[in-house]
Amino acid sequence: MADNFLERHRRDYEERKQAWLKNKKHMPRVKRHLEKPEDEAY
């Protein structure tokens, strides 16, 4: 069968994870403020 199948997939996963974490640091945080209708506002 495929030699080093799990090792290769683990390596690919770790590479994607590192790229995602690196990109995540540069993403602006999204702050969402939901506007409540007048009758539900406290």
Mean pLDDT: 83
Q: State the share of residues found in helices, binned by percent.
A: 40-55%
DSSP helical segment count: 1
Structural class, judged by helices and strands?
Answer: mainly alpha
* Beta strand count: 0
Which assembly state applies to the chains in this document?
single chain
- Taken as a percent bin, the fraction of beta residues is under 5%
Question: Taking Cα atoms only, what radius of gyration do you get, to the nearest Å?
Answer: 21 Å
Can you tell me the residue ranges where pLDDT is under 50 for at least 5 consecutive residues?
none
Largest sheet: none
- What is the molecular shape? elongated
H/E element order: H
Report how far apart the termini are: 65 Å
Topology of this protein?
Elements: H1 5-25
Describe this structure in words.
This protein has one helix at 5-25. The protein contains one helix and no strands. It has 42 residues and is mainly α.
Which features does this protein show?
42 residues; 1 helix; mainly alpha; 50% helix
Short description:
This protein is an all-alpha fold and 42 residues long. It has one helix at 5-25.
